[in-house]
Amino acid sequence: MAEQQDIDRGRPSEALERDVARRTAELHLLYEVVSYINSAPSFPQALRFVLRRVAEHNGWCFGHAYLVFEKDRDVLQPPTVWYEQPAGRFSAFRRATRHFQPRRGEGLPGRVLDTGQAHWLNDLAEELTARRADLAEDLGIRTALAFPVINEDQVVAVLEFFSDEAFEPDEVTIETMSSIGAQLGWLIQRKQLKQRLVERTVEERQLLGQQLHDGLGQQIASVAILTQRMAHRLEQGKDVRPQDMKRLVSQIDDAMREVRTLAHGLMPVQVQAGQLRAAFEELSSQTAIIVPCNLICNSPVEIDDHEVATNIYMIAREAVHNAVKHAQCRRIVIRLDEVESNFRVSIEDDGRGMEAGRRAAERQARSAGVEGGLGMRIMRFRADLIGAALTFKPRDGGGTVVQCEWPINPDHA
After folding, report:
1. Which residue, among 366, 364, 361, has the nearest Cα to 377 in the 3D structure?
2. Alpha-carbon span 9 to 46, nearest angstrom
3. What H or E segment, with its residue span, contains residue 329?
4. CA pair distance 285, 293, nearest whole angstrom
5. Burial level of 161, CB count in 10 A (0-12/13-18/19+)?
6. Cα–Cα separations (whole angstroms), residue 76 to 106, 160, 193
7. Residue pLDDT, tens place only, 209-248
8. Closest to 50 in 3D by CA, of 183, 217, 198
9. Given strand 332-339, what is the order of strands in its sheet?
10. For the CA atoms of 110, 114, 116, 121, what is the dihedral angle to 10 degrees?
11. DSSP annotation string for 154-199
C-alpha cells in the first residue's frame, strides 16, 4: 500500500516535468524562429526555415505557405515555398496545388483566412479539393492543419501542414504557432513596405522626368531660342533690344526657380544643424496655400543625421498630406518641441477625426484600385527605421493629432 501511494504521489510530478519540458521545447523553437527571421537574408528563406523547423519540431511531413493577394485580400496566392519529408514524396500533391487559389472561406486555408484562427481536420475529404484529398489519402495523410499569419489584425498568409498521424493540436501548439505567425506577419509587412517605398521612388523619378521635360526643359528651350535670335542680330551688326535682354533675364530667373523647386523635392531636408526647422517652415508655407497651416517651434531642433532628419520630415509631410486630403480640416498646426530627453513633432488638424478620415481614404483607395492605409503603414515603417515612437490620437475638440518622438542621444542628435 505504501509503495502504491509513493507511485501515485510521483505521477503528478512526472506530468509536471513533461509539461515543463514541452513548454521549454516550444520556447526554444520560438526563439530559433524569431532569431532567424530577424537576420534572414530574404523573405522566402525565412519562410522556408519556418516551415522546416515547425514541421521537424512537430513531426509533420509537409508544409507550405499561401500569401494573401495584395490587390484582392479575399484570395490566397498558390504556394511557392514548401517543406517535405522525405524529399519528392509530395511532388504530385504540390503539382495539384500550384494553381490552387482559395478564396475567403473556401477549403481549409480559405477558412483560416476568413476566421483568422487555426483550423484542422482528420476527414481530409471534408474541406480539401477532391484532387488534393485523393492524393493526401494515397500518401497516407491523416491530419491537415492550417494557421494564420496576422499583422495589424489582418490575415496576410496561411501556413498549411500535413501529418501522417491522426491528432488534434493542443493549446501549447496553437499558442506557439500564433507567436510564430505574428513574427512572420511583421516580416511580411516590412517586405511589403520596402517594396512600396521602392515603387514610390520609381514614381517620383518618373514625375521628376516629366517635370524636367515639361517645365525646365521648355524653359531652357525658350532661353536657347531667344539667345539665338539675339546672336543673329549681333551677327547682322544690329544692337540687342532692351526688351529682349529683359525677357532673357526673366526666363533665366524662371528656370532657376524651377531648379530650386525640383532640388527641394529631391532633398527636402538639409542635414546641417538647425536646418530641419527651415524644412518645416517651407512645408508649412506650402501647405498654407491650400489650408491655413502654422509652425510652432518651442525649442531648437538640430539633427545632423541625414537618415533621421529625412524620415522625420517624410513622416510629418505624410501626416500633413493626409490631413489636407482626407480630414476636411480648416487648420493645421505643426509643433516642434523638446520633451524631457526626446524631440517631438506633432501635426494637429481640426478635421473630421481619425475614423472618418480613415474611411474616406479607404474609399478613395478602392476607387483607384490600390491598397488603403498604405500611408500610415509607411509612416510607422519610417519611425521604426530610426527608433522613433509614432502615435495617432483624437484631438480635443475634434480632429487628429499625429506625434513622432525620437531620442536625443549621440547617435541621433
Report:
1. 361
2. 45
3. none
4. 7
5. buried
6. 10, 12, 19
7. 666 766 677 778 778 888 888 888 888 888 888 888 888 8
8. 183
9. 293-297, 332-339, 342-349, 400-407, 389-394
10. -40
11. EEEEEEEEEESS-----HHHHHHHHHHHHHHHHHHHHHHHHHHHHH
Rg (CA), the chain: 30
Distance CA 337, CA 295 (A): 11
Strand segments (E) across 68-171: 82-84, 119-121, 143-151, 154-163
Cα dihedral 227/229/230/234 (nearest 10): 130
Instruction: Indicate the pTM of the whole model.
Output: 0.57
DSSP-derived letter for residue 214 is I
Q: Which of 147, 50, 124, 135 is CA-nearest to residue 89?
A: 135
Question: What counts of helices (H) and strands (E) characterise the chain?
Answer: 12, 10
CA dihedral in degrees (8, 12, 14, 20; nearest 10)? Answer: 180
Residue 35 CA to residue 168 CA, distance in Å, equals 28
Rounded to 5 degrees, φ, ψ at 331 are -160, 145
The Cα 404–Cα 390 span in angstroms is 5
Q: Are 329 and 287 in contact (CB under 8 A)?
A: no
* Contact of 309 with 280, CB cutoff 8 Å: no
Neighbouring C-alpha atoms within 13 Å toward the C-beta of 369: 0
Shortest CA distance to 317 belongs to which of 352, 276, 272, 372?
A: 276
Query: Residues 369-390: pLDDT tens digits?
Result: 434 466 777 888 888 888 889 9
Q: What is the C-alpha separation between 284 and 323, in angstroms, rounded? A: 13
- What CA–CA distance (Å, rounded) separates 308 from 388? 9
